[in-house]
Every structure is written in structure tokens, then in C-alpha cells.
Amino acid sequence: MIPLYRPGASLLHRMPAGAKLLLLLAVGIVVSLWRESLWAPALAWGLVLLGYLLVRQRAAAGVLQAAGNGLWVLLRQLWRLKWLVVLVAVPQLIFLEPTTAALNTARILAVILLAGLFTLTTRVSDVLELLTRGLLPLERAGLGRLGLTAERLSLAMALTMRSVPVVFGFYREIIEARMARGASTSPAAAVSMTTPLLVMSLRHAEETAEALAARGVR
Questions:
Q1: Using CA atoms, how far apart are residues 15 and 118, in angstroms rounded to an integer?
Q2: Of 30, 32, 92, 145, which has fewest CB within 10 angstroms of its CB?
Q3: Would the pTM count as exceeding 0.85?
């Protein structure tokens, strides 16, 4: 569910990271406050559709080709979120009216897709710089005396963002290796995958720590 940054020349790629984050925050607040209104989720989904139509824009590509590429990215993101939709929608359908459950699910899904759009069009270096500026007041408030500087905290968050897709990659490698040996990949067999996944994740963490130490980061 966490897409990696994809280079591009669209309007969203050129927007400052802070402006995109504030827009995402504003949409999240609007769809949370106006729960009974159809306009809030409609506006959010309008922004989702517009954003994904723009994300694949290229100077050399035609308008229709760019729009088609954007819709393909959106459909792929929706497919990745299919189980989340089930987990969110089914419990609500049990206790709430279908219309209310559908509106709640639509709001949550729209905000998640917009968050994915932010990651898709924003460099990690830009996010790191934005976090550093945002955490400076906390550093001045006293966290700096504990060794928790804005630079260290933003670096930790950036490493977390980078590590999530890496760990998912390890999981895919384990599944492919099991399938190549003819082993089962059922949910019950997933328990046996935790040990190699843990070993690979710890090895990645050690390599990252060594790389940081080699660059003078304590």
C-alpha cells in the first residue's frame, strides 16, 4: 500500500511537499467532520481521480495516453487495497446501515489513496527536509538535550519509509522460494515464514546501521 516515488513532470511532482501534505490534511479533516454529507467524499474522490490523471503526465505523451496511464495506476492501487476495503466495510455492514457503511469506507479509501499519491509524487529527500523543519520546534523545546534532534528523528522516519517496501520484498522472495520448492503458501504456512523474514530484516538493519556508521552517523 506504500508506493515508491516515481519521477515525473506533472503538476503534483512540481508542488512543494509541504503544500501537498497540508492539502492531504485538509481533505482528511473535511471528510471526517462532514460525516453525513455526500459532498465531502465526492470532493475527496474527485481529487483522487484528478490527482491520478495528472501523476503520469509527460511532456512527450499525449493527453489521452497520460490519462490512461494515470487511471491504470489508480486501478492498481485499488486492487492492492482490496482486503483493506473488506476489513473496513464488512464490520460496518453488520452494525450500520449500508449507506452509512459505504460513505465511511469511501472516505477512508479516498484519504488512503491521496496519501499514496503524496508518496508517489514526493521525493524521500523532500519529505526528510519537511520533517526536519517541522521537528525543529520540538528540538528547541528540550528534546535536543536528550539527543533527539530534528535531523535524527527525520532520518529515522525516512529509514522507516524506505524499509517497509524492502521488508515486503523479502516476504515476496520467501514466497517465491517456497513456491519453487513446491511448498504450501497457505495462511497456516505463513507462520513458518516468520523466521527467515526476521533474519533477513535483521540483516538489512545491520547493513543499514553499518552504512550509517561509515558516514559518521552515530
A1: 10
A2: 145
A3: no
DSSP element (H, E) containing 39: helix 39-55
Question: Phi-psi category of 62—alpha, beta or left, where left has phi over 0 and alpha has psi -120 to 50?
Answer: beta
Rounded CA separation 123/131 (Å)? 13
Distance CA 114, CA 52 (A): 9
Q: What is the pLDDT of residues 96-153, one digit of tens each?
A: 888 888 888 889 999 999 988 888 888 877 887 887 787 777 767 766 666 667 777 7
Q: How many helices, marked H, and strands, marked E, lie in the chain?
A: 9, 0
Tell me the C-alpha distance between 132 and 140, whole Å.
12
Which one, of 116, 143, 125, 88, lies nearest residue 4 by Cα?
A: 116
138 class by beta-carbon count within 10 Å (0-12 exposed, 13-18 middle, 19+ buried) = middle
As given in the structure block, the three cell numbers for residue 132 are 526536519
**Are 31 and 148 in contact, with CB atoms under 8 Å apart?**
no
